[in-house]
């Protein structure tokens, strides 16, 4: 475990790997753009169960889930986080497939600022002037996009709110991140199986229906979903919060570049104004985070910690 003053190089490698995987995810989702988002989500759930179970078994972390499955309170909390993550996945899959990858990037750029605001509103955490300025600048960017489009950027805000509340409720889940993810997909499995059976019976399903391309892509949904999340959870334990705060911009930046330069999504005047405003807000927020981290950093130990 990293100390509050050190980043473990192994943790840094894990975190970067996870964020790069998330940054490449639009290519996978674009390949499944012809599949309804609900069906994609159902396969993400179902094939994540064996992958997550295998990883937990290899990590020898299965005991927590056996205890959690006997706790109604834990199951209830996991049901809330499972519902929120399924909504987040659904919006993301739809956004990429429908040509709104820029909205996905926007949503994940705004998310850190929303999480800070959520902490102030629900947890009573105090915001300093710099944090308030960063949040206000991001809100102004959303106003610019709203005025230009004549409507709120619903997909971006949906991703921000669903992930922000997911992270908020996840804090109270009394199991580790990997164990919690397994519990979430386990709870989502019955409705996911019901949906797949329904689309198979009415002939609208895309799994094992003659197209091996679709079948293999949907089979890969478990690896695509579970592996980055568990790699991220492993890395997060070995890094300072301020380091994770900077690294989290890797994925939305990759999504942004992919949307504009590869998918060819329109990037008009409003976007040229709003995105630099958000980047400025994030730069202000990150600089403040680093400043606070240095101020609260404890003195270096005279002797190294035992391994």
Features:
307 residues; mainly alpha; 13 helices; globular
What would you note in describing this structure?
The chain is mostly helical and 307 residues long. The chain has one domain (9-294). The chain has helices at 9-31, 37-59, 63-68, 72-97, 101-123, 129-149, 154-170, 177-201, 212-219, 221-236, 241-247, 250-261, 269-296. The chain is globular and about 55 Å long. The model is unreliable at 299-307 (pLDDT under 50).
Question: Which term fits the overall shape?
Answer: globular
Q: Please state the structural category.
A: mainly alpha
What sequence of helices (H) and strands (E) makes up the elements? HHHHHHHHHHHHH
* Low-confidence region ranges: 299-307
What gap, in angstroms, lies between the N and C termini?
9 Å
Strand content: under 5%
- Average pLDDT, rounded to a whole number, is 87
**Total count of domains:** 1
**Number of beta strands:** 0
Helix tally equals: 13
Largest sheet: none
Helix content: over 70%
Rg over CA atoms, rounded to whole Å, is: 20 Å
């Amino acid at each position: 475990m990293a100390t509050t003053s050190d980043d473990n190089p192994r943790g840094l490698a894990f975190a970067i790997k996870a964020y790069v995987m998330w940054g490449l995810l639009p290519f996978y989702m674009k390949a499944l753009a012809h599949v309804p988002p609900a069906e994609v989500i159902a396969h993400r759930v179902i094939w994540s169960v064996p992958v997550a179970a295998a990883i937990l078994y290899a990590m020898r972390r299965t005991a927590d889930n056996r205890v959690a499955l006997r706790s109604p309170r834990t199951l209830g909390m996991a049901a809330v986080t499972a519902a929120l993550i399924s909504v987040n996945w659904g919006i993301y899959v739809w956004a990429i497939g429908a040509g709104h990858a820029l909205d996905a990037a926007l949503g994940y750029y705004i998310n850190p600022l929303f999480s800070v605001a959520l902490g102030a509103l629900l947890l009573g955490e105090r915001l300093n002037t710099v944090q308030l300025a960063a949040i206000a600048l991001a809100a102004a960017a959303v106003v610019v996009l709203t005025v230009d489009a004549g409507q709120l950027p619903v997909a971006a805000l949906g991703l921000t709110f669903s992930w922000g509340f997911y992270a908020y409720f996840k804090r109270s889940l009394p199991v580790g991140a990997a164990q919690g993810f397994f519990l979430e997909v386990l709870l989502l499995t019955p409705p996911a199986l019901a949906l797949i059976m329904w689309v198979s019976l009415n002939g609208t399903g895309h799994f094992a229906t003659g197209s091996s391309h679709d079948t293999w892509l949907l089979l890969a949904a478990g690896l695509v979903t579970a592996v980055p999340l568990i790699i991220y959870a492993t890395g997060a334990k070995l890094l300072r919060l301020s380091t994770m705060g900077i690294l989290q911009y890797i994925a939305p930046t990759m999504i942004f570049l992919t949307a504009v330069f590869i998918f060819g999504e329109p990037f008009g005047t409003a976007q040229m104004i709003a995105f630099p405003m958000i980047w400025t807000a994030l730069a202000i927020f990150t600089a403040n985070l680093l400043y606070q981290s240095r101020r609260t950093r404890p003195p270096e130990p005279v002797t190294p910690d035992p391994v």
